Amino acid sequence: MTNRWFTCFAVVSLLFLFESGGHTTAAQDDPTHLRVNVVLVQLNVAVTDNKGNYITGLKPEDFAITEDKLPQKISTFEESTEAGHSSMEAARGDQGHGPSSAGGGGDADPPLSTSNAAGVTISHLTDANVFVLFDTSNYMYRGFVFAQDAIADFIRSMDDSSKVAFYSYSRNLSRATNLSTDHFHTVNGVRNTVAGDDAALYNSLLLTVKDAAPLKGRKAIVVFSNGPDNASSVPPEDVAELAQSTGTIIYIISTRQAQEDPVSAAAFERMSKVSGGKAYFAKNWREEKQAFASIREDLVHLYTLSYYPQANPNRGWRSIHVKLLGKDLQKYHIRTRDGYRLLPASALPTDELTSRTNETEAK
Question: What DSSP string describes 147-165?
Fold first, then answer.
């Protein structure tokens, strides 16, 4: 019990220590009131068939969202331009909704933003905000150069408009390069890393989620790890919950086979799954490259839906359920985060506090 309270205190300390912005959340000076801000909730949704192929060309009316079983009205709907090209090709073949295919033909890009009859803003985008978090602890002495190559190739494969940041970690987090569309500069940051010291993955991942939290649009963290965490003061469950509550996707590539380190493997799978991402366990450098390619494909085929929550007295954990409507869509699979915790306004990202908010008070 003592250790658990210490862990909670450490998490709270980290959250407020690295918080920027001076917004207050107290309801006047009354300590019996707690004010929370319910901002626009964003969901990144992957839709696949039984073979894992991405399904493109879906519309806002194909989705239904509930929060704590309360129906929600979709406010914005986004599909990447690359996925949009695939869906247009499928439509020309009278195939309806179907797996994505490569190539965009010679057609012009779809309009950047439109609105449908229900008032949903529909847009197409290709950019994302991606943080690469690289394990440079003692565990990485073997295969270090191969790992650098795989990361560099992944960064180069990103769309020119996507912003990529490169961080590394051992006992401490190193922000080698900030978010930038200058991928050449980011790759240079990868090449300048060296390995050494213990591994504090969960501490570093928590701080990376905090950096990603204020950003709008698609935001993801890609972790490359070669070993267990032996130096963190926070548990993976707290990292996962913050990622869920801020809409940050976590992908994890581990170079250790799951059976070699079942505790870390289970934590990696939980963190990635609840955030809407994936965990990969690569046996060699070829599988590392395949994992990065899979993540890149996932990012460009996500649907991004958002909504302003309906009035809800629940000020704790809120469950989210997304489903597809129509008999012909029931065979497809959905992957997204399954909920979020209502954060006090002081713990919310500064940029999001400037968004449209619904303020509620609890006594």
Answer: HHHHHHHHHHHS-TT-EEE
Residue 296 sits in a domain whose CATH number is 3.40.50.410
**What's the pLDDT tens digit per position in 4-34?**
444 443 433 333 333 333 333 333 344 334 3
Q: Does residue 135 lie in a domain region?
A: yes
Amino acid residing at 85: H
* 167 in any annotated domain: yes
111 to 129, 149, 273, 300: CA distances (angstroms): 22, 36, 33, 17
Domain range for residue 239?
129-300
Predicted confidence (pLDDT) at residue 328 exceeds the cutoff of 80: yes
CA dist 120 and 60 (Å) reads: 8
Residue 43 included in any domain: no
pTM (2 d.p.): 0.79
CA gap 246, 342 in Å, rounded: 10
Contact 215, 246 (CB under 8 A): no
* Phi-psi label, residue 185: left if phi above 0, alpha if psi -120 to 50, beta otherwise: alpha
Interatomic CA distance for residues 276 and 240, integer angstroms: 10
Cα(147)–Cα(152) distance, rounded to whole angstroms?
A: 9
For residues 223 and 131, give the distance between their C-alpha atoms in angstroms, rounded to a whole number: 8
- pLDDT digit string (tens) for 157-210? 999 989 999 999 999 999 999 999 999 999 999 999 988 889 999 999 999 999
Count of structural domains within the chain: 1
The DSSP element (H or E) to which 302 belongs, if any, is none
Residue 271 domain flag: yes
Q: Rg of the chain over CA atoms, in angstroms? A: 21
Largest pairwise CA distance in the chain: 64
Better pLDDT: 351 or 204: 204
Q: Are strands 121-125 and 74-80 parallel, antiparallel or unpaired?
A: parallel
